[in-house]
Amino acid sequence: MRKEDTWEFGYKGLIGNKLGVSLDIYNRKIDGNTLFTAISPTYSLVNPNLGADLGNAVATTELRDFIFTTLGGDQNPTAGPTADGLIPVINDAFAAGGEGYAGAIVDLYPIIGATPTDNVPDNGITHIAAGYRTFEAYDYTGVDLGLEFYANENLSFYGNYSYISDNIFNPAIKGADGATETTSIAAPQNKVRLGANYTPVKGLRGNISIQYDESFMALLGQFSGDTGNRTVVDLGLGYKFNDTITFDISAQNVFDNEYRAYPLFPEIGRRVLAKLTFNFAGKG
Fold it and tell me: What is the CATH number of domain 3-39+131-278?
């Protein structure tokens, strides 16, 4: 059963009728959180050097002695190869073959040596059983700070910053005798928002915002990996003709800086939306 304990306190106020301030500090303790992941035992290759190892294993002193005996002793280098001359050639050939093989199977390194369970099909294909790990309690603290400066009744500038103390954890697995596994909350440790709003009662209006999300590690099954840093600019422009008719056009990710919400998710690029609004109720 998943249980969460949270404490939180904050402040929101206006200083000098010009500067709006909001501050929120919180802590989340999560007990019984789950992660969908592979649960079959696996053995992965770490820093393999197949080419050099294969070449060195073949080009041994025993092989040199065999070639020496087969050729009938030392030969004149001008008349043909010698044992000492052939050994480096054989070494290089096997090393090149090993490197080619290693390059062809590099994507299989994480499952080489996988041990499937009895509950998967026995059809000659390696199946890694997947399921949910349940974790012991872990916690993190977060801070949200927001500032907004009101230049006048129509124009304001704002900045927001969000921070969490950690987004990668290594908690104990429930019922696994102290074994641990890495998990994450799939959120950046640092986020920044900057922008401005110009919103007169009538006439031309607009807004701009810049959003920055720090890269974070997502552990979401096949959608796992590093997201990469993300900076997105949004723009909006509109015109309020009267209390009834308003026209707005907005561009999200205006510079078309394509990104994915999580690895292997569809790419998100520029999105432009135009909107014509009729308010038949009039004012309000």
Answer: 2.40.170.20
